[in-house]
Write a structure and sequence with these properties.
Ubiquitin-like (UB roll); alpha+beta; single chain; 31% strand; two-stranded antiparallel ribbon; 7 strands; five-stranded mixed β-sheet
């Protein structure tokens, strides 16, 4: 499924300034992996040890922090949006 992903400015700058992307995945983790595969510079910024999201980032499904849901296994439904922001930006 295709979902809208919004990136923090620092992440968008790493890929030429695109703040909003359409990416594929049925879970938040799948969408983030798709993001890293399509944009290699972001993979290094997104992941720690290849499996955990960088603790300096916060990831949301709609308005909910995925840490309060099912983490990277959080399922996505049509119309859902994923946002990846700097933890310093808040949520």
């Amino acid at each position: 499924m295709t979902v809208k992903v919004t990136l923090a400015p620092v992440l968008a700058d790493a890929i030429g300034g695109a703040r909003t992307l359409q990416l594929e995945g049925n879970t938040v983790g799948e969408v983030l992996r798709d993001l890293g595969e399509r944009h290699a510079p972001l993979a290094r910024m997104l992941w720690r040890d290849g499996a955990a999201v960088n603790p300096m980032l916060a990831v949301f499904r709609n308005q909910d922090d995925i840490r309060t849901l099912e983490g990277l296994a959080t399922p996505l439904q049509p119309g859902d949006e994923v946002a990846v922001i700097s933890a310093a930006e808040g949520g």
